[in-house]
Structure formats: structure tokens, C-alpha cells
């Protein structure tokens, strides 16, 4: 599947959250991916932060790949039917593996348990040397501040390598984050 186009995997919520700032940031990121000709891989939902991201990316010409486990198919709020590609997988573990295999970098936007599960798996795999792909957080409205404080504490207490914490790219600026995750000269 891989070609010369850069691909960003984005983990985010299928809910919109309680503040429009979350879906606004997702739309801004989706538009930037289209403008930069970056392929989007995400969880395949049509609602919430996920839907805002995918719709904006599609509207700005990005190739959008949704990956969803069978158990989530058919829930009224879930499946986005207007994507460039839609891949059904058997379970969440297969979804994460497929997302990782298809992506050059990873980014998390606000979301819940699934978002954190996906982010933590990517970070854990980087920590043990299974990949060297960049990972980042789009900090929106202070959403990730408690998580970043946890990472800082885990590092200070010796449970997280300083290098891993330093490699996590965090920005509230979409263009800066995308540039740092996928510099234009780094197409695969």
C-alpha cells in the first residue's frame, strides 16, 4: 500500500467533546493534511472529532483511509461511508496493527479510552524499538495537560526514559505539528 505520499495516523474521539474547540482543531488538521497532500489514516467514524477530521481532509483533497473493527460496524454513529478507503478488521488489536503499518507518523487529538489506548501502544512500541516513527499530540484547550504532567512525573520518577518523553512532539499549532511530524523532505 505504501507509496511516495506521506501518511499521518490520527487517533481521536468519535464523540465531539463538550467544547467546539475540539472539532474545530480536527477540521483545521484535516484541511492542513489536504493542503500538504498528506494521506490520513484514522479510525473510520463519521461522528465527533473523527468525523470532523475526515470530512475536512476529504474536502481539501486528502486521501482518507478509515480502519474499523467489525464490532463497531453498523452502530448508527460509527461508519463513515464517504472515505477514499475503508478497511474492516476483526478487532481493535488488528485495527492498531493496520494503522501502524500504513503510517509514517502518529498524532493524537482529544478523545477517550480508545484514543489513549492507541497512543500508548504507539509509544510503548517506540520505547522497545519496534518503530522509530514520530509521535505527537495536538494540544487543544489544555486537554492533554494532565497527561503531559503524568509523563513528566513518570520520567522524573524513573519509569519513562527521558529520550522517549523528549521525542513526543507537542504543539497547539497545527502547521507546526504537521511539519515536525512529517517534514516535506521525509517522504518514504
Structural description of this entry:
The structure is a single chain. With 188 residues, the chain is an alpha/beta fold. The chain has one domain (7-181): Rossmann fold (3-Layer(aba) Sandwich), CATH 3.40.50. Helix content is 42%, strand content 16%. A seven-stranded parallel beta sheet has the order 4-3-2-1-5-6-7, with helices on both faces. The model has no long low-confidence stretch (mean pLDDT 93).
Poorly predicted residue ranges: none
Q: What do we call the CATH topology?
A: Rossmann fold
Named at the architecture level, the CATH assignment is: 3-Layer(aba) Sandwich
Q: How many angstroms separate the termini?
A: 12 Å
The major β-sheet equals:
7 strands, parallel
Q: Kindly state the number of beta strands.
A: 7
Order of helices and strands: EHEHEEHEHEHHEH
- Text of the CATH class: Alpha Beta
Shape: globular
Approximately how much beta-strand content do the residues carry?
15-25%
Structural class: alpha/beta
Oligomer: single chain
Amino acid at each position: 500500500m505504501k507509496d511516495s505520499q506521506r501518511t499521518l495516523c490520527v487517533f481521536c474521539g468519535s464523540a465531539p467533546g463538550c467544547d467546539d474547540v475540539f472539532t474545530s482543531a480536527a477540521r483545521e488538521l484535516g484541511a492542513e493534511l489536504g493542503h500538504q497532500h498528506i494521506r490520513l489514516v484514522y479510525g473510520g467514524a463519521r461522528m465527533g472529532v473523527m468525523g470532523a477530521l475526515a470530512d475536512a481532509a476529504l474536502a481539501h483533497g486528502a486521501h482518507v483511509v478509515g480502519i474499523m473493527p467489525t464490532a463497531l460496524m453498523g452502530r448508527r454513529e460509527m461508519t463513515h461511508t464517504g472515505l477514499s478507503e475503508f478497511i474492516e478488521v476483526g478487532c481493535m488489536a488488528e485495527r492498531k496493527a493496520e494503522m501502524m503499518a500504513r503510517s509514517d507518523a502518529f498524532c493524537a487529538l482529544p478523545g477517550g479510552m480508545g484514543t489513549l489506548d492507541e497512543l500508548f501502544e504507539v509509544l510503548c512500541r517506540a520505547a522497545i524499538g519496534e518503530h522509530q516513527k514520530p509521535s505527537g499530540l495536538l494540544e487543544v484547550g489544555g486537554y492533554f495537560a494532565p497527561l503531559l504532567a503524568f509523563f513528566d512525573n513518570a520520567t522524573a520518577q524513573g519509569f519513562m526514559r527521558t529520550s522517549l518523553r523528549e521525542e513526543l512532539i507537542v504543539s497547539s499549532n497545527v502547521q507546526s505539528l504537521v511539519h515536525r511530524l512529517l517534514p516535506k523532505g521525509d517522504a518514504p
